[in-house]
Amino acid sequence: MEFMRILLSILVLIFHGNTGVLSEAGVLVLDYYKEACPLVEEIVRRNVEIAVLRDPRMAASLLRLHFHDCFVMGCDASILLDTFGDMISEKQAGPNLNSVRGFGVIDNIKHLVEEACPYTVSCADILAIVARDAVVLVQISINSLHELATTAI
């Protein structure tokens, strides 16, 4: 058990802050999608903005969706899978049922990304980019409100 904890700590230290994707050689590549799918960042950013403008709580929901995906067995987009036969999916599991939301936003983004770059961007990467952009969008909003408040005084 102690060995696994040490191994996990080493892996976290190695990969912390790396936003790349594994290359054919099995090495993470920073900005992988800049060449493989240059529109993915714009597609995600624009659709996260639209979703959050429609429902400001959606930013937190999208971050929470990513958290729940990563919490169980790692960030593998398994939270997006539907129940099949007798196997209950994470999406319909007790703790997530009627609790996690934002699946429609993700499905829309996945569809648009797949149209732009078929078979290129993983669902797990889409979830991570969506969560990042949702947090950035809220930070920008908070900074704008702070500027308005300080200039009004």
UniProtKB/TrEMBL annotation:
Pfam families recorded: peroxidase (PF00141)
Keyword presence, Chaperone: no
Transmembrane segments: none
Annotated signal sequence range: 1-23
Coiled-coil spans in chain: none
This protein's record includes keyword Glycoprotein: no
Assigned EC number: 1.11.1.7
Reaction(s) catalysed by this chain's protein: 2 a phenolic donor + H2O2 = 2 a phenolic radical donor + 2 H2O
Residue ranges constituting the Plant heme peroxidase family profile domain according to the UniProt record: 27-138
Domain of life: Eukaryota
InterPro entries linked to this entry: Haem_peroxidase, Haem_peroxidase_sf, Peroxidase_pln, Peroxidases_AS
Keywords carried by this UniProt record: Heme, Iron, Metal-binding, Oxidoreductase, Peroxidase, Signal
Entry cofactors: heme b; Ca(2+)
Function: Removal of H(2)O(2), oxidation of toxic reductants, biosynthesis and degradation of lignin, suberization, auxin catabolism, response to environmental stresses such as wounding, pathogen attack and oxidative stress. These functions might be dependent on each isozyme/isoform in each plant tissue.
Family as reported in the entry's similarity comment: Belongs to the peroxidase family.
Protein name (Swiss-Prot/TrEMBL): peroxidase
Organism, as annotated: Vitis vinifera (Grape)
Lineage: Eukaryota, Viridiplantae, Streptophyta, Embryophyta, Tracheophyta
